[in-house]
Amino acid sequence: MKSRTIRGGIVALSVALATVGLSACGGGTDSDGTTLRYWMWDSAQLPGYRQCASDFEAQNPDIHIQFEQYGWDDYWMQLTASMVAENAPDVFVNHTSRFGSYVSLGQLLDMTPYVEADKYDLTQFEDGLAGQWTSESGDARYGLPKDWDTVALFYNTQMLAEAGFTVDDVWNLEWNPADGGTYEKFLAHMTVDKNGVRGDEPGFDKSQIAVYGLGYNEAGSGYGQVQWAPYALSNGEWRWTDKNPWGRVFNYNDPAFQESIIWWRSLIEKGYMPSLAIASSGVGSLESLKSGAYASLVEGSWNLAGVATTTEIGLFNVFPTPIGPDGVRASVQNGLADSIWGGTEHPDEAWAWVSYMGTSACQDVIASKAVVFPAISSSSTIAAQAFEDLGYDADAFTVHISDGTGVTSPVVDRWAQVEAIMNPAMSSVMSFVTEPSSLTEANNQVNTVMSRDRDD
Fold first, then answer.
1. Which helix (H) or strand (E) holds 309?
2. Distance between the two ends of the chain, CA-based, in angstroms?
3. What is the distance between the alpha carbons of residues 273 and 190, in angstroms, rounded to a whole number?
4. Which residue of 3, 109, 264, 390 shows the fewest CB atoms closer than 10 Å?
5. Residue 26: helix, strand or coil by DSSP?
C-alpha cells in the first residue's frame, strides 16, 4: 500500500475498493494533477462549497475539484445510471434514504482506514450524525457528516398578528390526538373562509376556504418528515423501525402511529388543512405560503434561506413543532454526508477533499452563508447567528438539538421498496379512500419485503 501527504486530509492511505468488479473511473489525472468530480443537488450551497474548493486547492495545487449539480430527482437518476456505467463521481453528497441501498450494492468506499490513519475526530459533529453513516456491523464508515436539518412551522407574521397571537403563544403550543390541544385551536383560528369567518367562529364554511391554517405538499409516504412525523414522533415512543440505523421491522401498525394519522387527517375534515388533491395539485407548498393561501406550514431548515431571499423581510418567521402528549416536541433530524464512490481511481485525493469539507475551516464558510446548519457543532452556532441576522428565529430548529428531541432519520437497505408500498398506502388514507387502520396491512407488506433474503 502506498502513502502520501495531502494537506486537508493529513495522512492518506490507499484503501482497497469496497466494490468488486468496478472499473476505476470517476475523475482524471493529467500533467496538471488530479481532477475530482464532486456532485451535489443543492444549488444554494454551491457558492459556499466553491469557496471551500478554492481554499482546498490553494493547499493542494495538484488536486482540482470539478462541481456538477443536478436537481433532486434528476440527481439520483443520474447517479444510479453513472454507477451502472461505472463512471460515477469520485465524491458525492449522500442522503440517509439512499445510503443503505448503496452500501448493500457495494458502491461506496470504506473510509475507516483513512479515519484511523488521520485520527480524524468524529466527536466534533452534532450527536447522532456520525453514527448514521456506518455499516450494519459498525466496522465500516461510508460517509462524513456535512450538515443537519430539523423542521419547524413557517408562518405569516401579519396573519399571526391579525389573529391576535404572540410569538410566545406559538412557541408553547401543545397537541394531542384526542382534541388537538392548543395547536389545533391555533390552526382553527388561523383558518379563514371566503366570507372572512375564522375556523373557530360561528358560520364558518369549511367548503369555501380562503386561507388554510396549515398547509402541506403530499401525504408523506413512509417518512413524513414535513407532514406527519412531528406528531407521530412526539406521541409516545413511536419510531419507524425497531432500531436505527439498520432496522428490520417497521411500526406503521402501532396504535400510537395510527391515532396520530387519524388526528392529522381530521384537519382536512374540519377545513383547517386542504385536501390531498389541493395540496398536491402542482402548486408548491412554499408558494402557497408566500401567496397567502396557507397561514403556516411545516418545513425544513433547508428552505429557510430560500424564503429569506425571496420574500419581504419580516413577513415570515418560524416557530418550533408543537409539544406532544408526553410533554416534549419532536422533529426528524436528518443529516447529509459526503461519500466516496467505490470505483474512484483517486481514493487518497477523494479522502483529502471529503475530510477537508469535514473541517471547521470549510464548515464555518458554509455556516456564514445562512443556507444550512453544518454538522460540526461550533459551525452550527455560527449558522444559527447568521439566520438570526436575517431576522429568523433559528432556535425553532436548534431547540431539537439543545433539548435532544431530534429523531434521526431511518437508515435501512430497502427504503425504495418501503416507499413503493407506503406512498400509495398513505395517499389512499389521506384521500379518504381507506382508513388509517389499512396501514396495518401496508406494514405487513413492508415487513415481508424487509425479511426477505438480503440477496433477493
1. helix 304-310
2. 35
3. 11
4. 3
5. coil
10 contact partners, CB below 8 Å, separation of at least 6: 118, 355
User: Residue 334: what are its φ and ψ, rounded to 5°?
Assistant: -100, 160
- Please give the tally of structural domains in the chain: 2
Task: Report in angstroms the alpha-carbon separations of 58 from 64, 90, 144, 299.
Answer: 10, 20, 22, 38
pLDDT in tens, 251-264: 999 999 999 999 99
- Domain holding 444, by residue range, is 151-333+401-451
Q: Is residue 343 part of a domain?
A: yes
Each residue of 111-138: pLDDT tens digit?
999 999 999 999 999 999 999 999 999 9
Cell of 363: 464548515
Q: Which of 389, 415, 434 is the last residue of a domain?
A: 389
Q: How far apart are CA 380 and CA 126, in angstroms?
A: 9
- SS3 for 406-441 is EEECCCCCCHHHHHHHHHHHHHHHHCCCCCHHHHHH
Per-residue pLDDT of 165-198, as tens digits, reads 999 999 999 999 999 999 999 999 999 999 999 9
Q: How confident is the model at residue 313 (pLDDT cuts 50, 70, 90)?
A: confident
Cell numbers standing for residue 304: 429557510
Do 163 and 134 lie in a common domain?
no
Q: Which residue has the higher pLDDT, 453 or 387?
A: 387
Q: Are 288 and 136 in contact (CB under 8 A)?
A: no
Higher pLDDT, 395 or 452: 395
CB-hemisphere CA count at 13 Å for 313?
Answer: 5
Taking alpha carbons only, the member of 248, 234, 213, 262 closest to residue 100 is: 248
Residue of 12, 8, 53, 19 lying closest to 346 (CA atoms): 12
Tell whether 172 and 292 lie within a shared domain: yes
273 in a structural domain? yes
Distance CA 417, CA 446 (A): 8
The whole-angstrom separation of Cα 262 and Cα 150 is 24
- What phi, psi does 90 have (nearest 5°)? -65, -40
- Looking at the fold, whether 33 and 19 belong to one and the same domain comes out as yes
